[in-house]
Specification:
Strand content: under 5%
Largest sheet: 2 strands, antiparallel
Number of strands: 2
Order of helices and strands: HHHHHHHHEEHHHHHHHHHHHHHHH
Structural class: mainly alpha
Number of helices: 23
Radius of gyration: 24 Å
Shape: globular
Helix content: 55-70%
C-alpha cells in the first residue's frame, strides 16, 4: 500500500485545529456521491487492483497501493470520457479499489498456508482437515474483511474526527489531495494506461512468446553460489517505489544469505557423509538453490518472525492507548454522544445497532461453519477477539505512521502463536489443530489489513466532506465482490505456491510456525539462527524486517529491486528538493501501471498454462541468450527513467505543501 500526496485545501499540516474543521465539500452542498456509475466503476477497479496486488503478493510478498491510480483512472473516465462526476463519486471509486488491494494483502499473506498444509498432509498420505473449496476460501476472506470494517466503525468519531490534527493518516491525507486536484486526472491516467501496455507487452514477449529469458543466472564457483536476476517489470517498479535505502537493506539481507551463509553451509558440509535435517540428501550434492530451500529459508523465516514481533513490541504503547480509547468511544456511542462539531450528513455512520448486530452475526457464522472451522465457537471467539483487538491497533497505528509501517506480519504471528497454544491445549492437535489455527490467523490478518484501509478511507472522506455511511456501505459491497476475484486467483495460483514457483513468503512463514508449535516439526536451530541475525540488525539501529525479507526471499527477486531503487536515487540526487515530490508522484503512477500490467498478463499466462495453450515462438535464436534478456530488461529501465525525466523537464506549476508522507509498498 503506497502513500501519496498531501493536501493544499484545506490546510492539513498535522497541527491541532484551533477552529472547527471545514471539509472540501461543505455540509450544505448537495453533491452526487453514491451513484450507480461510481458503484460499477468502483467494483471494476476493486477487482482489477485486487487481482494485480494478489499476484504481486504471491510473487514477492508485497502489495502496491491502489488509491492513487484508482482515483486518477476514475477522474479520467468520469470527467474525461463521460463528462460528469464529482469529487465524492471519485472518492467512492477509490474506496472500493483500495478494498481490493487490502483484501489481496491479507488473503495472499495467509490463505496459501492452508494449501501448503494440504500438500504436506498429502505427501504423508493423510487426509486434509477440511475441504479447501472456493466457497470456503471465500467465506474466510469475507469474514475477515467484514470484521475489519465493522470493528472500526465505532472508532471513527474518536480516531478520525476528535483526533484530527493529531493523527495525520498520511496515505488518506495524501489521496484526498489527489482527488482535490482532479483537473490533472486525464493526463495522469494516460501515464498509467501506457505503463500497463508496456509491461503487458514485455511479459507477453518474455513468457508467452518465449523471446527472451525471465531469470538470468551466473554461477560464482569459488563461493559455491550464484548471482541471479528475475527480470520482471513489477520488481523494478517496486524498487522505485521503495527507494534505494530500503532496497539496499533488503539487498544486504540477500547478500548475507547467498554470499555468506550458503557458501558457509556448502564449505563445511562438503565433507559430510550423513544427511543434516531438514534436508533429504547430502550437502555436497546440493545446488545453491537446494541449500536455500533446506536451510536458508528457515533462517530467513526466523528473521522475519523476529522482525515482525519486534515491530509489534514497538507498537505496544499505541496498542494500550488504542484499546483504552475504543472502550471510551463505545461507551460514548451507546449514550448517543456525537463528536464536537460533527453534525448532519458528514456525521452519519451505519447505525450502531446494525454494527453490533453484524458483530453477533459474524461470530455465529464463524462458530457454526464446521466445514472450515472445526473447533466451533472456540475458533469463533479467538478470531473475533484477536480481530477486534488488532483492528483497533491497526486503525490507530496507520493514523500515526501510515499503512506502510503497520506491523501486519507481527500482529498476525502474535495472534497465530497464541491461537496455536490455546487450540493445542484444548486437545486439537495434528492436522485438525494446524488447519484451525491457520483459518483463524487468515481471518485476523485480513481484518487487520481491512481495518487500516477503512481508517485511511474514512479520513479521506472526512477531509473531502463525504458521508461516512456511504463509505462504509461501499466498502462492505466491495468486500463481498472483490473477495471472489482474489480467492479465485489464490486458488488458481495454489499449485505454483505449493511447488515454490511463487514464493508467498508470509504464507510459508505462517505454515512453518504452525508446524513448529502444533506439529513439532519445525527445525528450530536454523530458525533461531535467523532470529539472532535479525536481533543483531536491530542492535545496529536498523529495522530488521526489510533485512529479514531480503534474507528469506530467493536472490533473484531482491537483486532486481535495486534497478528501480537506483533510478529513484538518481532523480533524488540530481534534482532540487522542490521537485522530489512531484517526480516521485509521476514515477509512482508509471510504476503502478507497470505492476498492474505485469500482474494482469501473469494471471492470463497462468490461465493459458492450465488450458495447455502454448504460444512460444519455436527456434528463436536469442531465446536462451542471457545478454539479450538483460538488454530487453534495460529497455524497460530506460522507459521508467525517460518517463520520470520527462516530468522533471516540465515547468513547475507550484502550489501546495511539499511534505512527503511515508511511502512504499506493503512488506509487513
Amino acid at each position: 500500500m503506497v502513500a501519496q500526496l498531501l493536501a493544499e485545501k484545506p490546510a492539513l499540516t498535522g497541527v491541532p485545529e484551533q477552529s472547527p474543521f471545514q471539509p472540501y465539500v461543505s455540509e450544505q452542498d448537495n453533491v452526487a456521491e453514491f451513484t450507480w456509475v461510481a458503484l460499477v466503476l468502483g467494483v471494476l477497479q476493486a477487482v482489477f487492483f485486487g487481482v494485480a496486488d494478489a499476484y504481486l503478493a504471491l510473487k514477492l510478498g508485497m502489495t502496491v497501493g491502489a488509491s492513487i491510480p484508482a482515483a486518477v483512472i476514475s477522474m479520467s473516465i468520469l470527467r474525461g470520457i463521460l463528462r460528469r462526476g464529482t469529487v465524492l463519486e471519485n472518492n467512492l471509486v477509490q474506496n472500493m479499489a483500495s478494498v481490493g488491494e487490502s483484501l489481496a494483502a491479507g488473503a495472499t499473506f495467509t490463505i496459501p498456508a492452508l494449501y501448503l498444509l494440504q500438500d504436506a498432509l498429502a505427501k504423508k498420505g493423510q487426509p486434509p482437515p477440511f475441504e479447501l473449496s472456493l466457497p470456503q476460501v471465500y467465506f474466510i476472506t469475507c469474514m475477515g474483511g467484514l470484521m475489519g470494517i465493522f470493528f472500526m466503525i465505532p472508532m471513527r468519531r474518536y480516531l478520525i474526527v476528535k483526533e484530527h490534527g493529531r493523527l495525520r493518516y498520511p496515505e488518506g491525507t495524501a489521496c484526498a489531495e489527489v482527488l482535490m486536484a482532479g483537473d490533472k486526472g486525464g493526463q495522469s491516467a494516460g501515464t498509467v494506461f501506457a505503463a500497463i501496455a508496456v509491461a503487458g507487452l514485455y511479459r507477453i514477449a518474455m513468457n508467452a512468446l518465449g523471446l527472451f529469458k525471465d531469470i538470468v543466472t551466473w554461477p560464482v564457483l569459488k563461493l559455491k553460489t550464484e548471482l541471479s536476476f528475475d527480470l520482471l517489470p513489477s520488481l523494478m517498479a517496486v524498487g522505485f517505489i521503495l527507494g534505494l535505502e530500503t532496497c539496499g537493506i533488503m539487498m544486504a539481507g540477500a547478500a548475507l544469505g547467498w554470499f555468506v551463509i550458503i557458501p558457509l553451509i556448502s564449505f563445511f558440509g562438503q565433507g559430510l557423509t550423513t544427511v543434516v535435517a531438514p534436508a533429504d540428501g547430502l550437502i555436497s550434492a546440493m545446488a545453491p538453490y537446494d541449500v536455500w530451500s533446506f536451510y536458508l529459508r528457515y533462517i530467513g523465516a526466523g528473521a522475519v518472525a523476529f522482525g515482525g514481533l519486534v515491530s509489534l513490541f514497538k507498537a505496544m504503547p499505541t496498542i494500550i492507548d488504542s484499546i483504552a480509547a475504543v472502550f471510551r468511544e463505545l461507551k460514548g456511542s451507546r449514550t448517543g454522544g456525537a463528536a464536537a462539531g460533527e453534525t448532519g450528513r458528514t456525521s452519519k455512520d451505519i447505525p450502531l445497532t446494525l454494527v453490533l448486530g453484524a458483530w453477533l452475526m459474524i461470530f455465529l457464522m464463524i462458530g457454526l461453519n464446521r466445514g472450515v472451522n472445526q473447533v466451533g465457537f472456540l475458533g469463533a471467539f479467538l478470531a473475533v477477539a484477536f480481530a477486534f483487538f488488532f483492528v483497533t491497533v491497526s486503525s490507530r497505528i496507520v493514523g500515526i505512521v501510515g499503512t506502510t509501517s503497520m506491523p501486519l506480519s507481527g500482529m498476525t504471528i502474535g495472534a497465530l502463536l497464541v491461537t496455536c497454544l490455546v487450540i493445542k491445549n484444548a486437545g486439537y492437535t495434528a492436522a485438525l489443530g494446524m488447519g484451525a489455527a491457520l483459518v483463524i490467523a487468515s481471518m485476523v490478518c485480513i481484518a487487520i489489513s481491512m481495518g487500516g484501509d477503512i481508517s485511511q478511507d474514512l479520513k479521506i472522506g472526512f477531509l473531502l466532506g463525504a458521508t461516512p455511511m456511504w463509505v462504509q456501505i461501499t466498502q462492505v459491497i466491495s468486500v463481498l465482490i472483490s473477495s471472489a476475484s482474489v480467492c479465485l486467483l489464490v486458488q488458481m495460483m495454489a499449485p505454483q505456491v505449493v511447488d515454490h514457483t511463487y514464493k508467498a513468503p508470509q504464507a510459508n512463514l505462517l505454515f512453518l510456525v504452525t508446524q513448529g508449535v502444533i506439529g513439532g516439526e519445525l527445525p528450530w536451530v536454523p530458525v533461531m539462527i535467523g532470529m539472532c541475525v535479525a536481533a543483531c540488525v536491530e542492535m545496529m539501529g536498523i529495522g530488521s524486517l526489510p533485512f529479514a525479507v531480503g534474507l528469506y526471499l530467493p536472490l533473484e527477486l531482491t537483486t532486481t529491486l535495486m534497478f528501480g531503487g537506483l533510478i529513484h536515487y538518481y532523480f533524488h540526487q540530481v534534482y532540487a528538493k522542490d521537485r522530489h515530490k512531484r517526480l516521485y508522484d509521476h514515477g509512482l503512477l508509471v510504476c503502478s501501471g507497470l505492476v498492474a500490467g505485469d500482474a494482469l498478463v501473469g494471471v492470463m499466462l497462468a490461465v493459458l498454462a492450465r488450458a495447455k495453450v502454448d504460444w512460444t515462438v519455436p527456434g528463436f535464436a536469442l531465446a536462451q541468450n542471457q545478454a539479450f534478456a538483460v538488454l530487453c530488461f534495460s529497455g524497460l529501465c530506460v522507459y521508467l527513467f525517460w518517463q520520470v525525466r520527462k516530468a522533471a523537464q516540465e515547468p513547475q506549476t507550484g502550489g501546495g505543501p511539499t511534505q512527503t508522507p511515508d511511502l512504499g509498498p506493503v512488506a509487513k
